[in-house]
């Protein structure tokens, strides 16, 4: 792909006036194309019967028992156990923003700014940071295979599930009064608008307007509170496809994949910025705990 | 030895509502490894029992078409808060697991 | 992908000519630096995809609404890059078009490079009535030809719209399928037939 | 031993059963559970054969046997189903999926206060009839069934 580099590099390009004055080619659009297509096809319902049936049985499954609870239990065990080269537990060393060891309500108040790291971090990134800085695990090891597949589940995934479960029934409250968080939010808003790649897609191509679908899949408008809630609720989630526990970090990567973008690095600023934008937009909405996903 | 189960039991009126989450791959023996094209052997829970207050209340046999990480729900009359609930499973490879909970 | 240097340069020239109109906000500048650091190549999705081409840069900097004169010149520039089939025939086989419209494959890091790329059409549009699993990001195309006819002008319009949607609407949400090499001219004309052929289920 | 015919649980405590089985030398050392898996029933390739293997050769439809399952499953790998029998003296429930390679999915015996009520999750390869069979203490069999549609997976979630 011969694409010009952004920002500074682009501005520095010396442009020949001859090219700049390219003659506009004749591009007459046939008149009929101005007419809006008004087909007599079946109306598109907001939610079809299948979607309603899926939602009903998903709710039933969460009520009766979500396999996510198995990972939550493993995460709790890991949180409380002395582990790693430093032989300390996260319960006695890791501050998720509400004090060392406090998990209750921590998930719905992240991403947040952590002075000790000098960064805004989402829950998963913070947990990884604690595992490295407090317990002495190697960052490269934790980054090597960060998402579940087959019967493998990364430790941080179980830990995130445990931490998230401890914010169930609490309202999202990303601390937007903190200027660090606000700044990252604004950067995230720019990431969401950034069109690039072979198909000129940005996040907003699919998630910037109400009532849109890809095939039958409802597309939440993440700029609204309702849409952001749709996108944020249910993560981390137990995915029926593959029977794996996956985190919101994973979901962001899969969005970029379908956007035809390259892969965002694990626990990177870009993913944190996106999560900050979406979660803060969902502020005030009650978190329903780890979910079940298709 | 298998991974821990999660067992919850709660009185709802005159019965105990028992929810069991098992951690098990429940391989059907019908899948192929996409990399090697070899059939992945079946590994699945074949039997489990539920005891409440020392008595077996449910005895079950299962095949390969139970979902991965199985979830079961039962209702038991005559149970009371404080009763011990014990769940035991055994799979076709001889692996087994026992976990307990108390009726709340 | 073949975003031509020419297409990019026209846009870049416009940015250079009026830098104030296209200047980045502080947050956007930060976002660009951040993304440059944070994305890595995976499969065929190379890290440089994060960089905008000229047209993307202008749309990104103007909230997808560049000034009218620039819009006009950019659209013309995109139109000039449209390549037509050698034999000049713009209507193919609607049945082949339906297959292309159904497929959403291609260009992701999990897609095998070299395998055929799909048109992704049903992802965003209602087209033939039999397919009830269709998206609504784009307008419905049901009865497209029935409502508009299939004159030579109309065929050319549909062909060039699919080849490069930006030649009609510079910041359109629709990809530039021919321009980026996702679909070949002979595939695009099958899609033209799907929309315009009176025998196509779209027009029944 | 046939699960739907079995009544070993009635009135016997688990430890009692186990102790008796151990005394009788019925248990292999590795076996935790004093049960046998009904191989013939679970390996039967169609529902009639599987039903025969569990002893349910003739059955009657019953409105008092409730089978709750989705009309359309979001994911065939995890289909939530629950079966409740309001037929008096129901002692066992079995669940079959007609189109699966091995239709018998599970069988449950209830005793010591357990209600004839079970929730479980099934793997379904394709759209199929899901069938519940209940057995009463006097040896009668009843059925209820429902079609569950399974569609190809998509992206999303």
TrEMBL record, chain A:
It catalyses: L-cysteinyl-[SoxY protein] + thiosulfate + 2 Fe(III)-[cytochrome c] = S-sulfosulfanyl-L-cysteinyl-[SoxY protein] + 2 Fe(II)-[cytochrome c] + 2 H(+); S-sulfanyl-L-cysteinyl-[SoxY protein] + thiosulfate + 2 Fe(III)-[cytochrome c] = S-(2-sulfodisulfanyl)-L-cysteinyl-[SoxY protein] + 2 Fe(II)-[cytochrome c] + 2 H(+). Gene3D superfamilies: Cytochrome c-like domain. Keywords: Electron transport, Heme, Iron, Metal-binding, Periplasm, Signal, Transferase, Transport. One of its GO terms (cellular component) is periplasmic space. Residues 74-171 form the Cytochrome c domain. Coiled coil: none annotated. It is found in: Periplasm. Its EC number is 2.8.5.2. SUPFAM superfamilies: Cytochrome c (SSF46626). GO terms for molecular function: electron transfer activity; heme binding; metal ion binding; oxidoreductase activity, acting on a sulfur group of donors, cytochrome as acceptor; transferase activity. It comes from the Bacteria. The keyword Glycoprotein does not apply. Transmembrane segments: none annotated. GO terms for biological process: sulfur oxidation. Its main location: periplasm. InterPro entries: Cyt_c-like_dom (IPR009056), Cyt_c-like_dom_sf (IPR036909), SoxA (IPR025710). Residues 1-20 form the signal peptide. Belongs to the SoxA family. Heterodimer of SoxA and SoxX. This is L-cysteine S-thiosulfotransferase subunit SoxA. It comes from Sulfurisoma sediminicola.
UniProtKB/TrEMBL annotation, chain B:
It comes from the Bacteria. Residues 7-101 form the Sulphur oxidation protein SoxZ domain. NCBIfam families: SoxZ_true. This is Sulfur-oxidizing protein SoxZ.
Automatic annotation (TrEMBL), chain C:
It comes from the Bacteria. It comes from Sulfurisoma sediminicola. Keywords: Heme, Iron, Metal-binding, Signal. InterPro entries: Cyt_c-like_dom (IPR009056), Cyt_c-like_dom_sf (IPR036909), Thiosulf_SoxX (IPR030999), Thiosulf_SoxX_II (IPR016823). GO terms for molecular function: electron transfer activity; heme binding; metal ion binding. This is Monoheme cytochrome SoxX (Sulfur oxidation). PROSITE patterns: CYTC. Residues 1-23 form the signal peptide. Residues 92-199 form the Cytochrome c domain. The keyword Signal applies. SUPFAM superfamilies: Cytochrome c. The lineage of its organism: Bacteria, Pseudomonadati, Pseudomonadota, Betaproteobacteria, Nitrosomonadales.
From TrEMBL, chain D:
Residues 52-155 form the Ig-like SoxY domain. Keywords: Signal. Residues 1-19 form the signal peptide. It comes from the Bacteria. NCBIfam families: SoxY_true_GGCGG (TIGR04488). This is Thiosulfate-binding protein SoxY. The lineage of its organism: Bacteria, Pseudomonadati, Pseudomonadota, Betaproteobacteria, Nitrosomonadales.
């Amino acid at each position: 792909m011969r694409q010009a580099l952004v920002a500074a590099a682009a501005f520095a390009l010396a442009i020949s006036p001859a090219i700049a004055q390219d003659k506009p080619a004749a591009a007459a659009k046939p008149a009929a194309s101005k007419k809006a297509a008004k087909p007599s096809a079946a109306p598109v319902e907001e939610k079809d019967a299948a979607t309603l049936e899926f939602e009903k049985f998903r709710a039933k499954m969460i009520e009766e028992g979500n396999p996510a609870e198995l990972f939550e239990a493993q995460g709790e065990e890991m949180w409380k156990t002395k582990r790693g080269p430093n032989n300390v537990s996260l319960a006695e060393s890791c501050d998720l923003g509400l004090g060392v060891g406090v998990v209750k309500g921590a998930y719905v108040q992240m991403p947040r700014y952590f002075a000790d790291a000098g960064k805004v971090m989402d829950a998963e990134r913070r947990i990884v940071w604690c595992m490295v800085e407090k317990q002495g695990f190697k960052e490269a090891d934790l980054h090597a295979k960060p998402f579940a597949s087959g019967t493998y589940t990364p430790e941080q995934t179980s830990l995130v599930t445990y931490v998230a479960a401890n914010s169930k029934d609490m309202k999202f409250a990303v601390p937007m009064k903190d200027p660090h968080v606000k700044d990252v939010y604004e950067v995230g808003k720019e990431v969401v608008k950034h069109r690039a790649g072979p198909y000129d897609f940005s996040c907003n191509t699919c998630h910037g307007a109400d009532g849109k679908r890809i095939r039958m899949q409802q597309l939440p408008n993440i700029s609204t509170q309702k849409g952001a809630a749709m996108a944020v609720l249910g993560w981390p989630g137990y995915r029926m496809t593959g029977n794996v526990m996956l985190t919101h970090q994973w979901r962001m990567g899969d969005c970029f994949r379908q956007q035809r973008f390259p892969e965002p690095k694990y626990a990177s600023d870009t993913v944190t910025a996106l999560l900050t934008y979406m979660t803060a937009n969902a502020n005030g909405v009650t978190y329903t705990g780890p979910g079940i996903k298709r | 030895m298998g991974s821990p189960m999660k067992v919850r039991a709660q009185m709802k009126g005159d019965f105990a509502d028992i929810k069991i989450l098992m951690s098990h791959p429940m391989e059907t023996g019908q899948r192929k490894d996409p990399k090697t094209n070899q059939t992945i052997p079946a590994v699945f829970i074949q039997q489990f029992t539920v005891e409440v207050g020392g008595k077996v209340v449910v005895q079950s046999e299962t095949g390969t078409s139970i979902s991965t990480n199985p979830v079961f729900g039962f209702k038991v009359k005559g149970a009371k808060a404080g009763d011990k609930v014990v769940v035991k499973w055994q799979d076709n490879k001889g692996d087994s697991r026992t976990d307990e909970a108390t009726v709340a | 992908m073949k975003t031509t240097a020419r297409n990019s340069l026209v846009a870049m020239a416009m940015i250079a000519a009026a830098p104030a109109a296209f200047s980045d906000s502080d947050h956007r500048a930060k976002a660009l630096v951040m993304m440059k650091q944070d994305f890595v190549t995976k499969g065929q999705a190379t890290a440089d995809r994060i960089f905008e081409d000229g047209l993307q840069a202008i749309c990104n900097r103007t909230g997808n609404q560049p000034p009218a004169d620039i819009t006009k010149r950019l659209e013309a520039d995109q139109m000039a890059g449209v390549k037509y089939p050698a034999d000049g025939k713009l209507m193919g086989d609607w049945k082949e078009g339906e297959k292309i419209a159904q497929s959403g494959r291609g260009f992701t890091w999990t897609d095998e490079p070299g395998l055929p790329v799909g048109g992704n059409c049903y992802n965003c549009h209602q087209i033939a009535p039999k397919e009830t699993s269709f998206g609504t990001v784009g307008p419905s195309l049901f009865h497209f030809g029935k409502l508009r006819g299939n004159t030579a002008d109309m065929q050319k319009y549909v062909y060039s719209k699919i080849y490069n949607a930006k030649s009609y609407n510079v910041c359109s949400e629709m990809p530039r399928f021919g321009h980026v090499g996702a679909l070949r001219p002979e595939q695009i004309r099958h899609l033209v037939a799907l929309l315009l052929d009176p025998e196509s289920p779209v027009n029944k | 031993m046939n699960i739907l015919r079995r009544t070993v649980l009635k009135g016997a405590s688990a430890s009692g059963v186990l102790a008796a089985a151990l005394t009788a030398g019925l248990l292999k050392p590795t076996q935790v559970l004093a049960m046998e898996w009904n191989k013939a029933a679970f390996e039967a390739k169609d529902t009639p054969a599987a039903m025969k293997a569990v002893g349910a050769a003739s059955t009657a439809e019953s409105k008092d046997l409730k089978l709750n399952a989705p009309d359309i499953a979001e994911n065939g790998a995890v289909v939530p189903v629950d079966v409740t029998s309001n037929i008096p003296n129901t002692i066992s429930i079995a669940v079959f999926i007609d189109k699966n390679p091995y239709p018998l999915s599970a069988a449950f015996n209830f005793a010591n206060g357990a209600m004839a009520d079970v929730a479980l999750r099934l793997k379904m390869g394709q759209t199929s009839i899901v069938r519940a069979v209940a057995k009463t203490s006097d040896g009668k069999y009843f059925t209820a069934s429902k079609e569950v549609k399974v569609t190809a997976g998509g992206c999303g979630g």
